[in-house]
Design brief:
The chain is mainly alpha-helical. The chain has helices at residues 6-10, 13-29, 35-55, 63-69, 78-84. The relative contact order is 0.11.
Length: 88
């Protein structure tokens, strides 16, 4: 990993923030009627968070250093990563 990524790779701040948001939203509901209702809510929250990360004005890891790290592929597919032997 490039040196500028080290502090971000070791940090669990984004994961902790996501867990706090999930806890906050599920606490509002209180008791879920069934497992499917919980999965539906958490799935919707994760999809919403994914969309926010994709459209964010600033990236968690800089695009330039990611491009260098991935050998010039800006958005490699999982298949490309597996062919290159990269960890997924």
């Amino acid at each position: 990993m490039p040196r500028e990524h080290w502090s971000k790779v070791w940090s669990t701040n984004p994961l902790e923030r996501l867990h706090r948001e999930l806890a906050r939203r599920t606490d509002v509901v209180g008791i879920f009627p069934n497992r499917e209702a919980l999965v539906r809510l958490v799935g919707a929250l994760l999809a919403e968070q994914h969309d926010e990360w994709l459209t964010a004005d600033r990236r968690y890891l800089p695009q330039g250093s990611l491009t260098r790290l991935l050998g010039g592929h800006v958005n490699p597919t999982i298949g490309e990563l597996l062919k290159e032997g990269a960890a997924v």
